[in-house]
Every structure is written in C-alpha cells, then in structure tokens.
Write a structure and sequence with these properties.
The structure holds 2 protein chains of 2 kinds. Chain A has 1 helix and 5 strands. Chain A is mainly beta. The longest helix of chain A is centred in the middle third of the chain and has 11 residues. By secondary structure, chain B is of the alpha/beta class. Chain B contains 5 helices and 5 strands. The chains are: A mainly beta, B alpha/beta. The interface between A and B is medium-sized, with 21 and 27 residues.
C-alpha cells in the first residue's frame, strides 16, 4: 500500500467492502471491521432479505453501480450464522 | 469528528501537488459546479488508508495520461463537512463513500468510482480504469 495510511495492525479484510451471506437468507454489503467473539462486525452496511422475493443479484448489481446504501450503521453477525464472506470487488455479478 | 488538521495536511498536499484544486466551502463548490461546461473530475478524499492510500496515487498516475479532464477538484470527506455534503448533492444518485471519484461531462456524471472499486486494487489498475474513462469522455475532437 502506498501513500499516507491509517489503521495498521488490523486483519487483511479490515476496511474492505464485503458481501456477507447468512444461513438465514440475509445478505449484507458493508465495510468489514473485525471478527470478535460476538461475530463479524460490519460498518455502513446495506441489507437484503431473500424472503422479500426480490433478486439478490439485482441487489448486488444495483449496489455495485450506485454504491452501498447504508441500512445499518453497524451490524454484528454471529459467526455461526455466516455462510460466506467475500470481498465485493472479487464477486462476478 | 474531523481529524487533527495537521494529520491530514499531507493528504491535502498530495492532492494539490498532482494538480487538484481544493474545495473547502459550500461557496467553492457552488462556484465550481455553477459552470458545468466541459469535463471535471471530483475526488472525494479520505483519511482512510485502506482505500485512500491507493486512490490518491491512482489519480496521480491517471492525471499523467495524455487525455485528462479540463478540471480536477477535490473535497475532503470527514474534514470539510459542508463542502463535501454540498458536492455530493451534485452526484446524489450515487451513495456516499470515500474515497470516491466522479467524472462529469457538461454537468452530468459519466463515470463513477466507488470506494469498493478501489479497495485491494493497485494504484496502477485503478489508474487504468480512470484513463479509459478519460479517453472515452475527455478526448476533444480537433477540427482541421
């Protein structure tokens, strides 16, 4: 990394926008902060509920184009509920 | 709450050194956006090293390209709060993130780079994306 940086000493995903899918059908897109005993903490996250009947892919496409709508300033997802965690810019949408 | 100005000064200077003009007040923003003719790049600066540490060098590389916007301006998220909020009103279709980059042509956003499109990328790869946008939107047609 170049330039002037803050936040040394965090995990590799710290500060990265991730897509977190839960085993309960929720998808969150937000900035990964850290994993704690309480779960995975995201900041400024958009949330999508598969029970809404809408398309998760459409949600991700819209988020990729227009940015992350902040539904949750902070959200902690218990680790056992996490089905997958992927950096957003590595996803094929 | 803004960081100590002394801590962010090098990040401001990095922008000015590459040719960006700082917009630090609402009046600055309104005066700049008041004449939408031509091409203008707006860089939303950030203290966050996770992405901004690559975004500023990326823009520096991109601005060395032969084709570039007519104007390059910058607002500093988390620092110049009112100026940043005002600037974001001009690209309100896009969710706020910082750093981010908006390229305008005649007052319309023609290319937008979100924070998530910068994270984990090298400055060179972000610059390549920007210069492609410059070639597409900023090239001028010369009349013989």
């Amino acid at each position: 990394m170049t330039g002037h940086v803050f936040h040394p000493g965090h995990s590799a995903l710290h500060g990265t926008t991730v897509v977190l899918d839960t085993r309960k059908g929720m998808t969150y897109v937000g900035r990964f902060h850290e994993e704690t005993a309480g779960g995975m903490l995201l900041h400024d996250a958009a949330g999508f509920d598969s029970a809404s009947g809408n398309s998760r892919d459409d949600f991700l496409r819209k988020t990729a184009k227009f940015g992350v709508r902040i539904d949750h300033k902070h959200i902690m997802v218990p680790t056992e509920e996490v089905a997958s965690l992927v950096p957003f810019n590595e996803m094929k949408i | 709450m803004p960081y100590d100005p002394r801590m962010v000064q090098p990040m401001r200077e990095e922008m000015v050194k590459m040719g960006a003009r700082e917009l630090t007040s609402v009046a600055d923003v309104d005066a700049t956006f008041g004449d939408p003719k031509g091409t203008m790049l707006v860089f939303v600066n950030s203290v966050c090293g996770c992405a901004a540490g690559n975004a500023r060098p990326a823009l520096s590389y991109a601005l060395a390209h032969g084709t570039r916007p007519d104007q390059v301006v910058t607002v500093f998220a988390g620092q110049d709060l009112e100026a940043t909020a005002r600037a974001r009103q001009f690209f309100a279709d896009y969710q706020p993130s910082s750093p981010s980059i908006a390229l305008f042509k005649d007052g319309e956003v023609v290319h937008f780079v979100h924070r998530h499109q910068i994270e984990g990328k090298t400055p060179q790869s972000v610059a390549e994306s920007l210069t492609a946008a410059f070639d597409q939107h900023c090239a001028t047609t010369k009349v013989a």
